Amino acid sequence: MPLPEIMSQLEALSDESTRKIMLKHGIREPLFGVKMEHLKNLAKKLKRNHDLSLALFATGNADAMYLAGLVAEPAKMTEAELRTWVSQALSHSISEYTVPGIAAAGPHGATLAMEWIDAPEEHIAAGGYVPELTEEAIAVARSIGVVYVDMGDTACKVPEAEGYIRKMLKRK
What we know:
- The protein is mainly α.
- It has helices at 3-12, 16-24, 36-46, 50-58, 62-71, 79-88, 92-105, 109-117, 122-125, 134-144, 161-170.
- The protein folds into two domains: 3-130, no CATH class; 131-172, no CATH class.
- The chain has eleven helices and no strands.
- This is DNA alkylation repair enzyme.
- It comes from Dinghuibacter silviterrae.
């Protein structure tokens, strides 16, 4: 499917309430506000496609950038492409989850994780996950205890850290 057609589909799938939620969560424009289920369904139709993922990301549209991560082929991503993606991401969900996930599934994960950990930009540094620090993170979470966070005008809740870390470990 050609890129202009995909972008037209994304625009047709836009949802104003989803768009408002995305903006409240710090996702920067441009964006359409496409629900995750629609992005995942579209990704299934498109299948994995390296060149398409690069083209989608290059649009600069947050929805297209997230879709790019869903159709990316981790083994084909270069270090330069991953660095570009993490630095140009319009949301923490892309820079902290999508890009590191793609990097970890490809040949450059370890190298980039160590590089990103030392990045001065918080959203990039958060992408450098180090499994060896899991137990230390749990110990720190336990010593700090429950944290209360003002999430602004959202319905989001911050989970208890130790329990959430353990829950995420079970997903592997």
